[in-house]
Amino acid sequence: MNEDRWDIISNILEPVYENGRFDFRELVKEMNLSTEKLKEYINFLSGKQYLELENENGKKSVSITEKGRVFFRIVNLRKKPEGKSELAKS
C-alpha cells in the first residue's frame, strides 16, 4: 500500500476512532474525497472488520471496531518520525 493510501486510511479512521461513531455525511465533508472514493475506502475497511456501517432511520454512520482501534494505532505508529517512539519514553 502506498504512502498516500495509508494517510487516507488514517484520516478516515481518526474521527471515527476519536468519537466511536461518525455520521457518513460529516465524514464526507471532513475528507477531501469524492463520496464514491470514500465509499470504496469504507467498504475496504469494513471488509477487514475495522469499521461497521450502520443505517438507522435512513441516517448512515460508521463506527469503529476493537480491531479497527488496534489497526488505527498501528497505522499511526508508522507516521511517527524516527526517534520519536512512545515506547522509547518509558
TrEMBL record:
Gene3D superfamilies attached to this UniProt entry: Winged helix-like DNA-binding domain superfamily/Winged helix DNA-binding domain
Instruction: Show where the ArnR1-like winged helix-turn-helix domain sits.
Output: 4-74
Q: What Pfam families would the database entry show? A: HTH_45 (PF14947)
Please name the InterPro entries in this protein's record: ArnR1-like_HTH, WH-like_DNA-bd_sf, WH_DNA-bd_sf
Question: Could you name the domain of life of the organism this protein comes from?
Answer: Archaea
Query: What protein name does the entry list?
Result: ArnR1-like winged helix-turn-helix domain-containing protein
